[in-house]
Fold this sequence. Notes:
By secondary structure, the protein is of the alpha/beta class. The chain has 2 domains: 2-218, Rossmann fold (3-Layer(aba) Sandwich); 222-292, Alpha-Beta Plaits, CATH 3.30.70. The chain contains 11 helices and 14 strands. It has helices at 42-49, 67-77, 93-101, 110-116, 132-144, 162-177, 189-195, 213-220, 234-244, 267-280, 295-303; strands at 2-13, 16-27, 31-35, 57-62, 65-66, 78-81, 150-154, 181-186, 198-203, 206-211, 224-230, 250-256, 259-264, 285-291. Strands 6-7-8-3-9-10 form a 6-stranded mixed sheet, sandwiched between helices. It starts with a strand and ends in a 6-residue tail after the last helix.
Amino acid sequence: MSVLEVKNLKKSFGTIHAVQDISFSVKAGEIFTIIGPNGAGKTTTLEMIEGLVPPDHGEIQFGEWNWDQHSKTIKQKIGVQPQSSAMFDLLTPEENLNLFATFYDKSRSTEDILQLINLTEHKNNHVKKLSGGQRQRLAIGLAMISDPDIIFLDEPTTGLDPQARRNIWDIIIELKALGKTTVLTTHYMEEAEKLSDRVCIVDQGKIIALDTPTALIERLTEEREVRLTFLDGNAAAEAAETYANTLPSVSRTDRNDSLLTLWSVHPEDTLYDLFRFAKENGLQVEQVSIKEMSLEDVFIAFTGKEWRD
């Protein structure tokens, strides 16, 4: 069941067409991630859905509710963690949560939120003394205080170290376990690939692909990259390359000294043939690997750009 329907959203700022024509739906309980480079229209799209920026054109529907007729109801049903969160530095996390709870008709227990975001031990410290990761976890907690059905997280891990980023991932996974729907924007490919039920790739204000991470990767290509390094050096790699180019499963090869890289639609069969060739010709393989395709490969293939923060 869809809890959010977005149809034909458009938004311009002067001559800049930030969002040109974006449509998608979000299912109840899923983690839906919007990815794209800076300037792609991710944040503008999110701000329109959150009711912070009016669209020039299009429809936003939360089940039977829309912003024109049911703005108060929607505000009680969604939680928002913007890129720049507003919190009171001279108050503690507990005091911030208690204050934000008064803004809503109903709220979740402050103790529950502190436990969810792993700040119970820091609940009496002033916010200004918290680390960047702790502040970001508190920002998610503030978005959760009304116990919303849908949570919007706009680049929640940007600028955090790997450990702090993983802590945020744990919270997002826990939100899913609680039955919450999460709409997430991110710059990080690994983050989108690991967390998302579905990924929406946006570039230049348009959706260029939308599917599960696995389906997007499988759609990209059936070829796999295989690498072999030979103990016998350049001559062995050159001989193996010549043989590999005779195999129907190999589409292309590349050689750099003793390293042979090839692309095959049937990598297991290719490796079987190559190992047999190596044994028959007395060649020694030092290392072998098959590269898994990633969401970053999908992004580059669809946009023609390298990923950039």
